[in-house]
From TrEMBL:
Protein localization: Membrane
Record GO cellular component, one term: plasma membrane
Keywords: Membrane, Transmembrane, Transmembrane helix
Membrane topology: Multi-pass membrane protein
Transmembrane as UniProt keyword: yes
Major localization listed first in the record, in broad terms: membrane
Pfam family name, one: NADHdh
Record-linked InterPro entries: ComplexI_Subunit1, NADH_UbQ_OxRdtase_su1/FPO
TM stretches of this protein: 6-27, 61-82, 88-108, 129-149, 155-176, 238-255, 267-288
Keyword Transmembrane found: yes
Protein's name according to its UniProt entry: Ech hydrogenase subunit EchB
Length: 289
């Protein structure tokens, strides 16, 4: 993959990622409302909310908060561009982690006790899911023979046939990555979970709007990781991957609406245990096969 390909992919993802992510967020609200016996908002309600945020006056507790959030959004777009242009999966993982670190620094920079607690919890979330994500990249290399995502379209069968344990591990930590209950410790979109919204307590206006767009792009990227497991050298596989991704997203919404938040100790231990069993065993098996 060339630098030009990655740049083009990033630009395309910067346009398509927020649009698809916005529609997914709207679908999330509608399905959640129906599960709770409500009518729910229209599909484009997330877009209306973000547009309203950008129309508000820019108010910030310091001059670096917006810079950190902008960097987090930028690296999320770059990570999406790398992945969807068929680039290096390991590099994509590192870049999206860098995005998370900038977001954590943005929360810490506000010096709000609520935001600092949220930032500490976000750090714990990163520490919880990162081993499984790295093992996913290693297992992908073992199954596809390369870190390049485009290689899946050269395979005779989807990589889930050989790394299905890793897929189950990624499915588990996906709930943490999407910030869904029961692992929405750092910030929650459910009003009953907390009085203030963790990391974004002191964020408002355009800064909070960028956070929402970043979250949309992250969702599209992470769901792309799920679809990657079902692609092979057949155009029909793209349709199969899309269907699986939608089913997984529905499952995440169902989990989000049926489980209460757990303590960070349970999240940390369970995520590492899943990484050790699902990821470690699968990688070790392929290494000595």
């Amino acid at each position: 993959m060339t630098l030009l390909t990655t740049l083009i992919g990033t630009l395309l993802f910067a346009v398509a990622g927020p649009v698809i992510g916005c529609l997914l967020a709207g679908l999330d609200r509608i399905i959640s409302a129906r599960m709770q016996g409500r009518v729910g908002p229209p599909l484009l309600q997330p877009y209306y909310d973000v547009r309203k945020l950008f129309e508000k006056e820019r108010v910030s507790v310091n001059s670096v908060e917006g810079v950190y959030v902008a960097c987090a959004l930028l690296f999320a777009l770059i990570a999406g561009g790398i992945f969807y242009s068929g680039g290096n999966l390991l590099l994509c993982v590192f870049v999206i982690t860098l995005s998370s670190l900038f977001f954590i620094m943005a929360a810490y920079s506000t010096r709000s006790p609520y935001a600092e607690v949220g930032a500490a919890r976000e750090t714990l979330q990163v520490m919880s899911y990162e081993p499984m994500v790295l093992l996913m990249a290693v297992a992908f290399f073992q199954a596809a023979g390369s870190f390049d995502v485009a290689e899946v379209f050269q395979l005779n069968h989807p990589i889930i046939c050989t790394i299905w344990l890793v897929f189950l591990g990624v499915l588990f930590i996906l709930t943490i990555k999407l910030r869904k209950s029961p692992f929405d410790l750092s910030m929650s979109h459910h009003a009953h979970q907390e009085i203030v919204r963790g990391m974004t307590t002191e964020m408002s206006g355009p800064t909070l709007g960028m956070v929402e767009i970043m979250h949309w792009c992250e969702n599209v990227l992470f769901l792309g990781w799920i679809g990657m497991f079902f692609l092979w050298a057949n155009p029909v596989s793209i349709l199969v991957a899309v269907v699986i991704v939608l089913l997984v997203y529905f499952l995440e919404i169902w989990i989000d609406n049926n489980f209460a938040r757990v303590k960070w100790q349970f999240m940390f231990k369970s995520a590492w245990l899943v990484a050790l069993i699902a990821g470690g065993v699968n990688v070790a098996f392929l290494a000595f096969l």
